Amino acid sequence: MKKQQWKPGNMLYPLPAVLVSLGREGEKPNLITVAWTGTVCTNPPMVYISVRPERYSYSILKETKTFVINLTTEKLLKATDYCGVRSGRDVDKFKETGLTAIPGPVTGCPMVAESPVNLECKVKEVKALGSHDMFLAEVVAVHVSEDYMEGNGRFCLNQTGLVAYSHGEYFSLGKKLGTFGYSVRKPAKKKGKHRR
Questions:
Q1: CB burial class (10 A; 0-12, 13-18, 19+) of residue 20?
Q2: What pLDDT does residue 6 have?
Q3: Which of 40, 54, 107, 127 has the fewest Cβ atoms within 10 Å of its own Cβ atom?
């Protein structure tokens, strides 16, 4: 397969498109759409978001050192896109999108009630990296919607309609192709009939 070499750039796709909620006490809460986010560590549970210093949310993050990652779904996609192209300096994003802000019980940071999963986070370190600063944070609480719980206590995350961002476009998750470890799993033995 023939390849072209391009200048260095971020071509690591797809990524989650998440709504990050944050706010100062006594002020209207804000939302920012982030695709530069991901898992860093399991124990302790750590995540990161990367934000440009010129963004309205940047100073709030630096001051409060708390935020919530709200996973987004197909139903939340229009609001997710809106919060990525409008500034909290100019508009009340919760009001304009019709989303509901509820206080996170651990951080006090606003959470998006309509999101199926909310990760309350406390910033541990801010790293200036260039165009963006990385906010490295510990997940201090996870909240999941009971609408996607099965009777056995299993949370059905993949039934929530999650969306992904890839090279300027949004996508819904497609069909399931396998489960973790399927490539090395031994096939189940067929039960044969035994004669006596």
A1: buried
A2: 92
A3: 54
pLDDT, one tens digit per residue, over 47-77 is 999 999 999 999 999 999 999 999 999 999 9
Residue 87: give its domain's CATH number: 2.30.110.10
User: What is this structure's pTM?
Assistant: 0.91
- 163-166/133-144 β-pairing: unpaired
Are 142 and 155 in contact by the 8 Å Cβ rule? The answer is: no
Q: Is residue 4 part of a domain?
A: no
156 in a structural domain:
yes
What is the spatial distance between Cα 51 and Cα 91, in angstroms, rounded to a whole number?
Answer: 19
The domain total for the chain is 1
What's the start-to-end Cα distance of the chain, in Å? 59
Contact assessment for residue 76 and residue 16, using Cβ atoms and an 8 Å cutoff = no
Confidence of residue 194 (pLDDT cuts 50, 70, 90): low
- DSSP alpha helices (H): ranges in 40-184? 56-64, 77-85, 93-97
Both structure tokens of 131: 């165009």
Contacts of 162 (CB under 8 A, 6+ apart): 16, 71, 72, 73, 172, 173
CA distance 2 to 79: 40
